[in-house]
Predict the structure.
Amino acid sequence: MSGNTESHGDQLMTETHLAYPAIRCRGATRVYRLPGGEKRVAVADLDLEVPAGGVFGFLGANGAGKTTTIKMLLGFLKPTSGRLEIFGEPCSEPETRRHVGYLPEQPYFHPFLSPREVLRVHADLMGIPRREQSAAIDEALELTGLQKNRNLALGRLSKGNQQRVGIAQALLGSPRLLILDEPTSGLDPVARHEMRGIIARLREEGRTIFLSSHVLSEIDTLCDRVAILKQGRLAACGTPEEIKQGRNTVRVSAAFLTPIAERELQGLGVQWDTGHEVTIECSPDQVYPVLRALEKGSVPLRCVTPSSETLEGAFLRLAA
Amino acid sequence: MHRLRQILAIARVAYLENLRKQVLQVTLILTIAAIGSTTLLSFFDVGVQIKILKDLSLAAILFCGGVLAVVLSAGNIPGEILTHTVYPVLARAVRRSDYVLGRYLGAMATAALCMALLAVVFLGILAVYEKTFDGAVALGMLFILIEVAVVAAIGTLFSLFVSPLVAGTLTIGVFILGQIKISFLHGAIERSASPAGSLLLKGLYAALPNLDCFSFKDALVHNIAVPPSYMGIVALYGLVYCAFVLSVSGIAFARKDL
């Protein structure tokens, strides 16, 4: 985002920067008091570490505690207990956020301001020197494709373009950590593709992107690591492959089953579906015993297909 | 320096936002109409007409100031929370107290602009009658602005604890009680028979600002000079009161969950 992105990227990977994870939550808990004295635990004893550099996906069903966690990270909410840090500094301190860019789920800006004016305000809030502001603003507008609409009031822009303004303000000043809440919400397929390109480019520059999204294919494509929240607790955390691992299966298709084959398969304890063909789903280490059972029953084999669990499948298994 | 720029950036957005409030525009038009209508009282001799012009116009400007204070303060921060426009700003390295101060200064800049507009109209009409610029009246209007600043600071504090509607109502209450604090509450404390009632009234007396001291209307109407030292003390009182209430507001907002 700066004039010399390459050197800035190098600068990001300084020792100080690498010494701390981008985000660290230790026992972060947030309890809401509801009317009538009732309590609701939104986030419970959350331990999370987001390494500096790379894209970290933050997943969870609605009400899982994602927004509460993000709000605690940004200092909007105080944790009931526990500690949250950004680059080793406590989230309760405003100064901690000097290296953070945040894109809210919906871009909330004053409708009478133009994209350029919004960015000017945020440049002042970030303390970007006046002489550098124009260049930084133009770069953010260019990157998000807003140059043409830079002087139009936000109220007159489409939802997609308003989202672009949100992205532009988050990128302004080259923050080390970007917290993006549903960044592709409201964008058309072309803009979504461009957004994914921007995120990939930011990762290459050495920035850390904390990405909360319900678009699981996007998370699967972009993220180096993923955390899944369920009812305020961490259900899983690891690389997308680790999250999906353990659920790799193999599909064995056959034309039909003979009584001998059925008996043999029952003995192996595998399940099968009968439709226009027979599909047997088994674990990788059961493939050869299944094939031997089919051979014994003189069953004509159609195909053997390795089947990996998708992130969506893992998400449904872990978070639903 | 960086914090000052942050505060001014927040104030600028608040100022631009406030200028679009229709209720302010309507109040301003009505006040200008009220000032203008005093010129229609042409059946008095010039000396009396000037007194009536000053009296009615200053009363209208004070009323307008009260409306400004309530409208600009009661929804100033809650409105931002409601529309979520507060989030991108506070996601930056901005202190909550600076945010409160920025929003307040934006509101005060709007109030100052409105007051300046009213001053131009009022002093212009007055200059036609008096054939000279009345500096004392201009100074009197500045003190109405300080009064607006005090009431708006209280309204800002209220708005952090209760809904904008309740905050507005309470601010109106403070505006009215503040005008009659000395004349009414002082007597009420002396007349109060129950110790609890007396204590309550004393507490109210101590907490409420003495808004009456900002009004030089009678002195201006009757061309009585107000000692500069008194004006200095009153201005200082207003500024210290604002600073105290805004500090409390900053602390309260810093503790608030968003």
In short: The mean pLDDT of chain B is 89.
